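Narrative of accomplishments. A recurring question from our advisory board has been how the design workflow behaves on a single, concrete structure rather than in aggregate. To address it, we present the structure tokens for one chain from the evaluation set, followed by the sequence designed for it. No filtering or post-editing was applied between the two.
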């Protein structure tokens, strides 16, 4: 169906959406103006694309050009993942970095003093206390690593799960023990909705402050603030339950983790917290947002919409 006869879309803010859905073995398309999943038997399932933060596309899924275009217009992130949903291959932007916000983020990352303030804010929000004074970013990263390892051990003791270390083989996601597999599945869920929030807020996923050099460095920074408040305890809880019931199956663990993460995101109101948290973290850098001198505005300004700052109008 031609875009010309579709109504103008007004993206829903991230805070008012559900977190994510997973689809596999079917074709995503736009039929009669609706975003639908068509299985091999021809059965159509309508997906309310504009009310979802991100859609994870598992093996066996095909996506039409019209479906990708509609998801982009609705501000919904498409994430192509591997078997078990824990390996991410690619993602499609639901919006994108706004020039003013991208420049602001880059200035913070390039200014050593501002960057340190941002990192200290992330530390304080993550652990609920101010970090030690007079420490560099590298020193804070080391302190954080020690605390994170202690948190993993504490969760293992709490749920009675054997824990050695956080390890996995990126080339073979089906390898490794159940608890590490569940942690990978849980963090993949968190990274998906966090990337959608970063893009919807108008910032660049690659410009990080603690993590650097990766396409999703800033996503990892923000997700880490919420990781132990949301998804990591779920991974240990699911692992412990499956072990007690004698069902130590990786695929089952991944499915249980997905459902539990979706419920926890709703319980913790994660989607309503993500974008305000991003703004609060960046504001800690204490750099004034300014328009570059000599900037010429757009010839045809966009109308104010209902979506977030980075959503396409």
């Amino acid at each position: 169906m031609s875009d010309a006869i579709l109504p103008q879309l007004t993206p829903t803010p991230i805070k008012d959406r559900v977190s994510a859905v997973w689809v596999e073995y079917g074709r995503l398309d736009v039929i009669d103006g609706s975003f639908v999943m068509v299985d091999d038997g021809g059965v159509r399932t309508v997906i309310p694309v504009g009310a979802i933060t991100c859609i994870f596309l598992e093996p066996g899924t095909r996506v039409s050009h019209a479906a990708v275009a509609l998801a982009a217009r609705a501000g919904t992130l498409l994430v192509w993942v591997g078997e078990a949903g824990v390996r991410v291959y690619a993602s499609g932007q639901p919006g994108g970095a706004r020039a003013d916000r991208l420049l602001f983020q880059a200035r913070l990352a390039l200014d050593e003093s501002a960057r340190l303030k941002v990192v200290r804010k992330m530390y304080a929000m993550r652990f609920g206390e101010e970090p030690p004074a007079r420490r560099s970013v590298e020193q804070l990263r080391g302190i954080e690593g020690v605390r994170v390892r202690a948190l993993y051990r504490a969760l293992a003791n709490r749920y009675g799960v054997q824990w050695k270390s956080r390890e996995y083989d990126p080339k073979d996601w089906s390898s490794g023990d159940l608890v590490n597999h569940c942690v990978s599945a849980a963090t993949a869920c968190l990274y998906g909705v966090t990337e959608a929030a970063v893009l919807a807020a108008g910032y660049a996923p690659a410009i990080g402050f603690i993590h650097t050099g990766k396409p999703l460095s800033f996503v990892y920074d923000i997700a880490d603030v919420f990781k132990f408040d949301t998804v990591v305890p779920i991974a240990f809880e699911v692992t412990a339950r499956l072990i007690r019931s004698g069902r130590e199956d990786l695929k089952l663990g991944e499915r249980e983790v997905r459902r539990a993460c979706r419920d926890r995101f709703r319980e913790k109101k994660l989607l309503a917290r993500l974008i305000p948290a991003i703004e609060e973290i960046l504001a800690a850098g204490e750099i004034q947002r300014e328009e570059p001198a000599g900037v010429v505005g757009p010839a045809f300004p966009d109308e104010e919409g209902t979506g977030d700052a980075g959503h396409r109008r």
